[in-house]
Amino acid sequence: MPFTETGIPDLLVYEPRVFNDNRGYFFESYSEQAFLQHGLQLKFVQDNQARSTYGVLRGLHYQQEPHAQTKLVRVLEGRIIDVAVDIRKGSPTYGKVFTIELSAENKKQLLVPKGFAHGYSVLSETAEVMYKVDNFYNKASEGGIIYNDPALNIDWGISLADALVSEKDVILPTLENCTHNFIYNSDK
């Protein structure tokens, strides 16, 4: 199966099958059929792409319901540390952090469901990150958690003293003080 569990309910690593030969490689970066076979019914409505340089740190971001987004994150060029934090009230893994290196080489993808804060840091000279979302951006519903929240103790793989962080992201609250309306549903 192309999906690997992460130890956090609903957060999955997706590894498409890659066909290599002397010409290069081919793979299906997304297959609705593969997702349906795994019981995942998603309707992605938009692809987003960002180019960043070494040391850029984006996150931790989310959108509240009813505008929450599931994301399927992958790297087209370079390497990143991708981070997801479970912020669903009542979840057995509430506040748990998951990190994974995503790269153009390993072709792994992270499926970040609604109810998670998400971010990444760039490990390579440059990185192109692309992610599918199943809901459109809504400014009024955006929220976030400060990247250096001591309670989360995230290893971003870069020096935080030298990280390039947006003005918006440096003033985000801690997990303890953030506002969100996510509730864990164990009946999925």
Automatic annotation (TrEMBL):
GO molecular function (one): dTDP-4-dehydrorhamnose 3,5-epimerase activity
EC number(s) recorded for this UniProt protein: 5.1.3.13
Entry's Gene Ontology BP terms: dTDP-rhamnose biosynthetic process; polysaccharide biosynthetic process
Active site: 61, 131
InterPro entries to which the protein is assigned, alphabetical: RmlC-like (IPR000888), RmlC-like_jellyroll (IPR014710), RmlC_Cupin_sf (IPR011051)
Top-rank taxon: Bacteria
Reactions that this protein is recorded to catalyse: dTDP-4-dehydro-6-deoxy-alpha-D-glucose = dTDP-4-dehydro-beta-L-rhamnose
SUPFAM superfamilies: RmlC-like cupins (SSF51182)
Pathway in which the depicted protein is active: Carbohydrate biosynthesis; dTDP-L-rhamnose biosynthesis
Keywords recorded for this protein, A-Z: Isomerase
Enzyme class label: isomerase
Oligomeric and partner information: Homodimer.
Family, per entry: Belongs to the dTDP-4-dehydrorhamnose 3,5-epimerase family.
PANTHER family: DTDP-6-DEOXY-D-GLUCOSE-3,5 EPIMERASE, THYMIDINE DIPHOSPHO-4-KETO-RHAMNOSE 3,5-EPIMERASE
Protein name: dTDP-4-dehydrorhamnose 3,5-epimerase
Organism per entry: Chitinophaga pinensis
